[in-house]
Amino acid sequence: MAQIAKMEVQTEIKSSAEKFYDIFRSKVHLMPKICPQEFKDGKLVQGDWKSVGSVREWSYAAAGNTETVKETIEAIDDKSKTITFNLLDGDMMKYYNTYKPTLNVTAADQGSLVKWTVEYEKKNESTPDPIKYMDFVATWTRKIDAYLLNA
Q1: H or E, element range at 41
Q2: Cβ neighbours, 10 Å, residue 20
């Protein structure tokens, strides 16, 4: 029986924690404009773009492959600048029974620290760890930082 595993990636950025978190909290619908190489399309399926329970569908490019994902916002903690998502459907779900990424942004001396933590359960033992997706979120984080610094 597969077990829930956890991976995390941390990225130091130059943007403020408030500005970076605000992209995910209230401007995530702009992702195809902010990161056009990573995000091809995004659409709202249910709710709004920023409330718990809202469902969104994305078309994105990870490791050179265009994939789709449907996600819901599971939890938001504005005080700690933390958002938890839960993947419902899409290409990743061919490999994982569950996939729950959590974003946490904290202020640092100069800029911020962005931490992505994912809890996942592989479909089977031969399924690889989601390294390509963790690489994707690290690149995505840096691209958002660059966008904010040039805004």
Answers
A1: strand 39-46
A2: 24
- Please name the helix (run of DSSP H) or strand (run of DSSP E) that holds residue 76, with its range, or none: strand 65-77
Phi and psi for 53 in degrees, rounded to 5?
A: 95, -15
Distance CA 127, CA 94 (A): 10
Residue type, 78: D
Q: What is the pLDDT of residue 16?
A: 97
Nearest-angstrom CA–CA distance, 140 and 119: 19
Q: Among residues 16, 25, 37, which one has the least CA distance to residue 151?
A: 16
Sign for the pseudo-dihedral over CA of 42, 65, 115, 130:
positive
Q: For the packed helices 131-150 and 17-26, what is the interaxial angle rounded to 10 degrees?
A: 110
pLDDT in tens, 91-134: 999 999 999 999 999 999 899 999 999 999 999 989 999 999 99
d(CA 58, CA 119): 20
